[in-house]
Amino acid sequence: DQESDYVLVIDEINRGNLSKIFGELLMLIEADKRSEAWATTLTYTKEGETSFYIPKNVHIIGTMNTADRSLAMVDYALRRRFAFVDVKPAFSQPTFLKKLDALGVDSALRERIKKRFEGLNQRIHGDANLGHGFCIGHSYFCQTGAMSPNEQWYRRIIGSEIAPLLKEYWPDDEERALEAIARLLDDD
Predict the structure, then answer these.
(1) Distance between CA atoms of residues 76 and 78, nearest Å
(2) What is the DSSP letter of 60?
(3) pTM for this structure?
(4) Is 144 buried (19+), middle (13-18) or exposed (0-12) by CB count in 10 A?
C-alpha cells in the first residue's frame, strides 16, 4: 500500500542491541535506501521468498529516556539514521495548564505545580551530575485515575512517584533530596 503512510513506534529503542534487533534493517531504514532498488535477502529468508526493503511511506519513531543511567551512549549507527527531538517538560505551556483545568485541577494547585516543578527543574538542570536530560516531566500530572485532582492527589504523586526519583537522583545527598521533596509539599 504505497498510497498510505504507516508509522512504527518503538518505545525505549535504545534498550536493546540494535544490531541484533534490526540486522539488515539498520541499513534499509536510511532515507536514501528506501526503495526496491535496495531490496536485500534477509538472513532468515526461506528459499523462494522475495527480497525485503523498507518503502518511503513507512515512518519509524523510536522513543528513549536519555536520563536512564543504565544505558550507554546512543550508538552512532542509530544516531545517523534518526532525527532526534527533545521533549522538554511543559509546566509553563498553555496546553498543559489547559489539560490540568480540563482534569478539574483548581487554579491555585495548577499554579503551584507550575512554579514548584519549574524551580525543581532549574535545580536539576544546574546540577553537574544530572543536567537537562534529568528534568522531571509534566506527564505525572496528566491523568487523575480514580482520584479527584486535589491536594491529596498531588501529595500522592509526589510521595509515590517524584520523591523516590529524587532520592535516586541524589543517593549520596539525602538531605538535598529531602529538601527538594519538602519544597514540593510546602503549603505556601
Answers:
(1) 5
(2) E
(3) 0.74
(4) middle
Alpha-carbon torsion 18, 22, 26, 29, what sign?
negative
For 23, 72, 185, the CA distances from 138, given in Å and listed in that order, are: 36, 25, 17
Cβ contacts of 32 within 8 Å, gap of 6 or more:
none
3-class DSSP assignment, residue 18? helix
Cβ atoms of residues 114 and 94 within 8 Å: no
What one-letter code names the amino acid at 29?
I
pLDDT along the chain (188 residues), means of 10: 93 78 83 90 85 92 72 65 86 95 95 96 95 92 88 95 96 95 89
